[in-house]
Amino acid sequence: MRHILHPGPAAPERVTTALGAPVPLRFALEPGDAVEEAIARGLAASGCAGGFVSLRGGRCEPFRYVMPAASPDADHAAWYSATFEPAGGVEILRADAIVGIRDEKPFIHCHGIWQTADGPRMGHMLGPVSTVAEPIDVHGIGVREATFRGTPDRETNFTLFEPVQAAEYRAGRPGSRALLAKVRPNQDIGVAIEGICSSHGISRAKVHGIGSLNGVRFTDGSRVESHATEVLIRNGIVETAGGRLQTRLVIDVVDMEGAIFSGELVHGDNPVCVTFELLIEVLEGGGV
């Protein structure tokens, strides 16, 4: 499997998790608000500081985003492109965001696909400087007992989201759990998710999240060769078959040239590049 060398020492723990009860979210982003501020307000109204949300429809203007790029120096293994600001704004086709805290303020990490005057584009949305122009429907899952916190990461030399426990989780009805998780570089994302589920006694779950992969291998034989990519999980499921956990991940991904790809990941050959952040939603009958 492909391996990327980051500038700092590899952390001994390759995954981290925090646990809470899932809180269904549904709200709208209103015109005039910055995307990040509006999402944070929607979570706060449900008593949540962290979680996962999906954005559908609506428009943003101005809208700013970046794409994955090679690092200009040895301080990082990958970097970002220059900022893009499409003329006339964009229509949000699909965007997914991990929500947490950075520098003691609400922060979102958002990847998505948007329609521009020049066609669909994909990348990393800059939520503080992208403004809602037409209402955007948001749904997702919040967590009150845990969140993601921006933390300096020695291995990658980035500040990255890390799951943290904010309060004690007290189990409610059986299976009513959500895990916030982070997977570090050079771990196959499907294998890592299965390991997380196994260690928490989870046999059936839905997987939400975004991150980066070091190249991509799809089940139809197609591939992405770019070592830096940005990914969102379009459909993710963990099930038990034949006594073994099996993960199925269908993703959208953009490479360093701006090309967009979609498909189901090959199991065991899709290593994380910088980070992958997840919300794992335990389904009914899928946990103790």
Looking at this protein, list some descriptive labels.
60s Ribosomal Protein L30, Chain: A; 2 domains; PPC_dom; DUF296 domain-containing protein; 8% helix; globular; 288 residues; seven-stranded antiparallel β-sheet; 22 strands; mainly beta; nine-stranded antiparallel β-sheet
- CATH topology type of the largest domain: 60s Ribosomal Protein L30, Chain: A
How many individual helices?
A: 2
| Rg for CA atoms | 18 Å
CATH architecture of the largest domain: 2-Layer Sandwich
CATH superfamily of the largest domain: Hypothetical protein, similar to alpha- acetolactate decarboxylase, domain 2
Which structural class do you get from the secondary structure elements? mainly beta
What sequence of helices (H) and strands (E) makes up the elements? EEHEEEEEEEEEEEEEHEEEEEEE
Tell the overall outline: globular
> Quick one: how many beta strands?
22
Level of helix content? under 10%
N-to-C CA distance: 34 Å
Give the biggest sheet. Answer: 9 strands, antiparallel
Oligomer status: single chain
Residue fraction in strands? over 45%
Mean pLDDT: 96
Low-pLDDT stretches? none
CATH class of the largest domain: Alpha Beta
Domain PPC: 19-164, 172-288
InterPro entries: PPC_dom
Protein name: DUF296 domain-containing protein
Organism: Microvirga aerilata
What can be said about this structure in brief?
8% of the residues lie in helices and 51% in strands. The protein is built from 2 helices and 22 strands.
